[in-house]
Specification:
Blueprint (H helix, E strand, L loop, with lengths): L1 E3 L3 H11 L5 E7 L16 H4 L2 H11 L19 H11 L3 E7 L9 E2 L16 H20 L5 E7 L3 H11 L17 H12 L8 H8 L2 H14 L3 E5 L2 H16 L9 E6 H4 L6 H7 L13 E4 L9 H4 L12 H12 L3 H20 L1
Parallel strand pairs: 2-3, 2-5, 3-4, 5-6, 6-7, 7-8
Antiparallel strand pairs: 1-8
Length: about 375
């Protein structure tokens, strides 16, 4: 139920080390006005819907369908929010969840740790955030990575995200770090909008200097989640395992970790860190996730280092819910740590396809019941 797509030996070692242990789940919420560009993302049907996606996902992850939401899950062109997958696992297995606000336009209606960040402007401006904010968010990430991992003796930390438009900021960060990523990233669309993403990224990078320090790069074309998760992973890797929960966005974070650690002489343990996603991302025919992961080791400016790329083999082909079957057509794919949550269910309780599917469909049943009330 867990595929290993790169660094197979290291990936197997990591899985073996944490088999039977339950993780702690931290999810970092952020916002970039890049996500409001018409057509850039399918995580919300309209730009206005996408403004509230992170708040809605956080609320559902925390409370599920048992409580009338202040921010309902946004309508999608097709599919169901990936938070339904994450919620099914964390609720059933009682995984501890910590939610962090790295920079949202409004505060979610859930207990959240506010990191004092700001939403990012559209990356096409080449001035997404103040450098002081980015430095502050890195410090917060390092601090919370240490605090969260201090309570983990034998387990690992899942670091998830919710940033609408985040695969476009990821493309900008990867490209700015000298990594060949054009045409290789994923999106929530069934066919990735590579040309649109690249036009936005080129516009942003043209307004920046070539030899940017990694924090300056994030300030120019990044989003607030990226530097927080990088800091958390650096600090946590020193004492426990880290599962970066996502595809393109977490490969960009991994590249950022390497660049920040090198630029600022921060110690971290690369062998403790893996990237975990869904099969729909790892095998997306309209992206090239495996190639992208391999390209992280080809950057001339840094030491080589390719992360193990893991993916749950969960399938929705036999689901009775059309909004889940839409995943098999390439809609949605990943988000809110969905793939990593499934990996955790396999690792800790040896959940197989039927158990995962039943738990996820039960969440959709609860949503349907709530909507009828």
């Amino acid at each position: 139920m867990i595929g290993i797509y790169t660094q197979i030996e290291q990936g197997e070692e990591w899985l073996g080390r944490y088999r039977g242990s339950l993780p702690v789940f931290a999810c970092v919420l952020g916002f970039t006005e890049t996500g409001l560009i018409p057509g850039i993302s399918a995580a919300g049907r309209t730009p206005e819907d996408r403004r509230y996606t992170a708040c809605a996902d956080a609320e559902f992850l925390y409370y599920g369908a048992q409580r009338k939401p202040q921010y309902p899950l946004p309508p999608l062109a097709a599919g169901a929010s990936p938070v339904v997958i994450s919620r099914a696992v964390v609720a059933t297995l009682k995984i501890p969840v910590y939610l962090f606000n790295a920079g949202l336009p409004q505060s979610p209606a859930v207990p959240v740790i506010d990191l004092g960040g700001t939403p990012a402007k559209c990356l096409s401006q080449g001035a997404a955030m103040d450098i002081a904010t980015v430095r502050h968010l890195l410090e917060q990430g390092l601090l919370w990575g240490s605090q969260l991992s201090a309570n983990i003796s034998q387990g690992y930390l899942i670091l998830g995200e919710c940033v609408v438009g985040g695969t476009t900021t990821a493309l900008a960060i990867l490209t700015g770090l000298g990594i060949e990523a054009v045409g290789k990233v994923n999106s929530s669309h069934p066919v990735c909008n590579h040309e649109q993403k690249w036009a936005v990224v080129q516009a942003g990078l043209q307004k920046t200097q070539n030899s940017l320090d990694p924090l300056q790069l994030v300030a120019a074309v990044g989003d607030p989640m990226q530097v927080v998760v990088a800091g958390m992973a650096i600090a946590a890797s020193r004492s426990c395992g880290v599962l970066l929960a996502g595809g393109t966005q977490m490969l960009a974070v991994y590249a950022l970790i390497k660049a920040i650690a090198q630029s600022y002489s921060l110690s971290w343990q690369p062998e403790a860190v893996v990237v975990g996603t869904t099969r729909w991302v790892a095998e997306d025919a309209t992206g090239a996730t495996v190639d992208l992961a391999l390209n992280l080791g080809k950057n001339n400016n840094q030491d080589t280092g390719i992360p193990p790329l893991l993916a749950t083999q969960l399938s929705f082909a036999d689901s009775s819910y059309p909004q889940l079957r839409a995943y098999e057509q390439g809609f949605v794919k990943e988000g809110m740590g969905a793939g990593a949550a499934c990996i955790a269910a396999h690792l800790s309780h040896n959940w197989q396809q039927n158990q995962l599917l039943a738990a996820i469909e039960d969440q959709l049943q609860q949503i349907s019941s709530q909507n009828l009330d």
